[in-house]
Amino acid sequence: HHVVADGWSLGILSRELGVLYADPAAVLPVLPVSYRDFAVWERGWLRGDVFDRGLEFWRGELTGVEALELPLDRARPAVRTGAGGVVGFDISGAVVEEFRGLVRRAGVTPFMGLLSVFQVLLSRYSGQNDVAVGTPVANRGRVEVEGLIGFFVNTLVLRGDLAGDPSVNELFGRVRDRVVGAFAHQDFPFERLVEELAPERDLSRTPL
Prior knowledge:
The chain is mostly helical. The chain has helices at residues 7-22, 35-45, 48-62, 93-106, 110-126, 168-184, 190-197; strands at 130-137, 154-161.
């Protein structure tokens, strides 16, 4: 559960269990820091100028962001749930290779390319040119915490600007700039961001 661990942590746990099952006498490496050390460091680090700079960036990124209004086939539940459906589909290998070539020529990562496609899809369905998408990030930028079990994941809000009917390359450039900026400020905790920006809350939706 996220109270104690994230997906990255489960990989660490699986590897370490594998080592110990293979050799019960094996000694796991001593970690340089504990999760408690990280929590204390984060609390001490996220204050003063560092906090103000992070908040200033995210305030600039997210001021005026609007809720996504997708066309629905039924009323939105008054309280958001995790219930949903899954629609499977196949993409041919040829299309995948074309996509890889496209993002390589545009100088963006596959993640940035897929985010662009997803934001275009949401824009087409909603009729909105300003589309915000949330994504989880590992948030393990310090080498000392790579081997720790704990909850480090943070949520980033990636805002897409589809105004002016941009070309594919123009859209890729906009998304790249937004993603690079967001990842440079990924240490700012999402819950603090919600607290500081205080968006109008609606129990049927996520806050940003």
